[in-house]
Amino acid sequence: MPENKLILITGRSTKQGTGISIGKEQEDYQVATSALELSLEDMARYGLKEGDTVKIKSQFGEATVKCRPQKLPEGLAFLAFGPATSHLLGSETHATGMPDSKGFEIELEQVPG
Amino acid sequence: MQFDSVVCAFCGCVCDDIIVTVEDGQITQTKNACVLGKAWFLGHAQHQDISAARIAGQPASLEDAIDEAARILVGAHYPFIYGLSSTSCEAQRQAIALAEAINGTIDCCTSVCHGPSGMAMQGVGEPSCTLGEVKNRADLVVYWGSNPAESHPRHMSRYAVTVKGKFTPNGRKGRTVVLVDVRPTPSARAADIFLQIAPGKDFEVLWALRALVKGQRVEASALEGTGIAFEQITDLAERMKKCRFGVLFVGQGLTQSRGKHMNLTAAFLLANDLNSVTKFALIPMRGHGNVTGVDGVMAWQTGYPFGVNFSRGYPRFNPGEFTMVDVLSRGDADAVMTVASDPYANLPRMVRKRLEDVPLISLDSHESETTRIARVAFTTSTVGVNVGGTVYRMDNIPLPLTKVLASPYPSDEEVLGRLLARVKELES
Prior knowledge:
The complex is a heterodimer. By secondary structure, chain A is α/β, with parallel strands linked by helices. Chain A has 4 helices and 6 strands. Chain A is about 25% helix and about 35% strand. The longest helix of chain A has 9 residues. The radius of gyration of chain B is 22 Å and the shape is globular. The model of chain B has no long low-confidence stretch (mean pLDDT about 95). In chain B, a hairpin with a 2-residue loop joins strand 4 and strand 5. In chain B, helix 4 crosses helix 11. Chains A and B meet through strand 1, helix 1 and helix 4 of A and helix 1, helix 4, helix 10, helix 13 and helix 15 of B.
């Protein structure tokens, strides 16, 4: 993996799950689905602190999110399913119907704020 | 008023011991529900001020909306129906009949959930069991690519880990729990053994496990780059062989990662292999409340569990050709109907673009990004709260839903049934 790239895992989280029922327009859901989790090492490598805004770029699109530290392996990032992840996914399913939703490369760019 | 033994239809656990309190026409309290179930019961009453039907964003009568939707579907060359994982089997049945009547294509959320598991079990079989058997017998529980602490919060306590059963009287103390995942999720705290696998290396590790279970030689070099040490995998293989009753719960960490259906093929074959030395089963951790049911109803009605095309007048199945992401990304569908699903918010960009470009019909109990862009939007009552019906638990056990609260909105089944009748009128 190139040094400036990360592997993104998308998935479910508790707040994302409750937000589906309580309301996707509610702040809890919006925050839960736009919080990019990074290891402390990667936060330091990118010069980021909790709450910084970053632009995620994948091969297929971009999304702007906030970042926060989490207990993760270095080089791995996590983002809960939601509007941001949908902007990053490609449509190739390799004849399965399932897009590549986990384990694809992303790049980060800090957004001044 | 209090309702006992209510079924929660939010996730694939489909817990049937919920106590719901209704006061002044509102659900005010739930007991036994997890955080996700509680939010589902209490959140059902949103958007009660919107009309039951809208055309182009404007309130319309149900009759006019049904007529408009029927004309869209009948006039399309490639109509597509999608969703259905959060509605009842009775509504699913109507949607499939509608797809057949319009020579359309129908796919369910399974294609972006455990579709790869379905493909694998078609190929190599499904060594399965019920969650009751897990509760009463399992002494080795392996979660692979699944985070039940967040996605299925009661799975461990009600079915698989801490629960005490007939032959598992010691509950948690009598079980070994293994978690295989790419990150230490909150579920890792509940595991005896956490194996942190490298992303995209599941197939390699599962295949090596198969070899070890069969007593074949595996070189340590075969595991290079997988994140798993040779000692760890040999230990797991031995535990799998020596357990009395093992179960492998597989999640989207396998279905959505590189390898997809081949990951699941390896997992099913591993469980098959283990049955030559002990008793072992595999259960996919199904996400939505009735996504298991829609697979069953689709298979019962068409012969196939998802991605079914009726354009030739008989059902054809081909993942990658007749599945949602593929059909819409290619730009094939020229009219789309979604049922109890929000693909505009969740699926890839090319799918979103096509949804913007074609006449869209939506049925949903909640307002969503999908319902907001729909040409015809039906607000329907919530299955399991406002209307009864049948849902299937992740282990294929059917459970009856309870109506605990009246709703001003029609059910999915009613709207789909009336839509089917109108389509037949127009076609004749």
